[in-house]
Predict the structure.
Amino acid sequence: MKSIQFGKWLASSLIAAVAALGMTSQAQAEAMKVGFVYLTNPGDHGWTYAHEMGRQQVEAHFGDKVVTTYVENVPEGPDATRVIRELAKQGNQMIFTTSFGYMDPTLKVSKEFPEVKFDHITGYKRSPNMATGNIRFYEGRYVQGVVAGLMTKSNKIGYLGAFPIPEVIQGINAFAQGLRSVNQDAEISVVWVNSWYDPVKESDAAKVLIAEGADILAQHTDSPAMLQTAEKAGALGFGQSSDMHEFAPNAQLFASVNNWGPYYINQIEKAMDGSWSTGEGPDHWAGNTWKGIGEDYLVLTEFKNMPADVAAAAQAARDGIADGSLVIFKGPMKDNKGNVILKDGEALDDGGLWAMNYYVDGVQGQIPN
Amino acid sequence: MYEELLLTILLTSVPLVLAATGELVAEKSGVLNLGVEGMMLMGAVAAFGAALTFGNPYIGMIAGGLSGMVTAAVFGLFALGLATNQVATGLALTIFGTGLSGLIGAPLVGKAIDGLAVIEIPILSSLPLIGVAFQLDFMAYLSIAIVALVSYLLTKTRAGLILRATGINHDSAHALGYNVLAVRWMAVLFGGFMAGLAGAYLPLVLTPHWAEGMTAGRGWIALALVVFASWMPWRVVIGAILFGGITIMQLAGQARGWSIQPQFLSMLPYLATIIVLVSISRRGGVLHKAPAHLGRIFYPTR
């Protein structure tokens, strides 16, 4: 734990206050202007924090060839339309909107500003000047499942979900596939928190799951509260979106970190050399770009708090996913009611991944609808 | 297993008890301060910052209370000093507190502290089941002590009588020679201190880190609890435990695989609040128990 000086803290707060007044960095004559719209603020240490890290990679990579602007705490809805339009008016040539709920606002503004390039994160609607990008988050969850299956003693895994949407279901099922690949007796118990971000409720849910016998916890919510609770109770768990090691040095097994930098840099480079496109074919959940562990869009932090053989199994799973030799959703695969989803030799395509409305074997209960 | 669930219920209700008791005193004096959420966040950020800087969560606790009090003073300057509309000022205070706490808390993000230690009370803590109520931290015990004190002061002392009088009819209280604004200032500052403590409880006990907006609406629940309790301190404790109980049981229900929609279960605490409100008011009670001059602006007459 690093402690900071009170005076330094106060001073940096004042600097932050001044910086907040003019968030655009210094403009260069012919630099490309790029805007970012954030759902919360980098202080969430989760989703938006990961996007901010990506933006900083962009600044570091391009230097004075790119000028970035970002707007924080933009609610999904009419306010988003206003903010995106304002960014376009200010002369940003490329605008990244970093949450699913910005899909329709981005689409609307993209039609008003045909010369501006829009890039929407995690959506499926496109237009001639609106592309989409996403990360295969679920790949990291398979590796989590492998580690959980080898580490659990009670064979009960607690899983905190935010909302039962396809992305979260994918994650739960990928986790279960990993879990069952090494441990046929372990079961996942899912608790829906009904919020992406409510630290106290996340912590409460973690306490309840531990009280019910879970010794390994996973989360698809944004705060480090679950891991802190696990740390205190002597349980283990996985970090979400960013490395949460500092919050739970003895409890975090590893974290799946969203690494948006390569995507942003790639898209901006394409915009500069004229090869940027919004792709062919029908609108699709997967978007133009949907990459994962193999391309370092999803990064796993160091495997800790586990024996060497478990870490080796995790590394093998990670490498298998990266080089394509390990297919997460392949037959024979059953849902948790015994219905056959995939026969031997079959595998799910991207469309099938987004159409998951079932839990696979290893998950308890049913998806709320 | 039941002991752990009960412990979680108790812990989750502590900040609600603290914030609602403070707001109750402010409302009893006739001031409606809707800025509880903002004051809680200011308390939370100050508590975390101080605990991190000085390495002592008890200093953090005091810093949290004082920070909430200073934030309440901003409300007092406008709503009492300049006689602005209390509802609008309170809402503005919530927005102000949310934003300012995020700003000054930015350098604190990503750090963790050691929270308040558990103080076990000998003998009592080894009782079956209810023993968990005696395995809490200093602030949890403090919250009960404050409720007892507030209950006593409000109903059994002259000071409490004066405070209630300013809330029931500020003109009469003024005519009797009481300094209405001074009484209300004290009540508002006390409310702020308590909201600050409530906010401090989050980073010091429940989730030992700072994150922007970490109260996630608990200030509003505390406000509802005051009405739920029909302005009686001990009922705040009952209401908070009931609210916490339903919240935790819905999570436990999911973990045990009850086939009920989680959305419905999440709704239960609010549904319970509404049902209780309706049942109280049907007995003709709740509206009569509200301080008659709650939210009314006081202009001193000569």
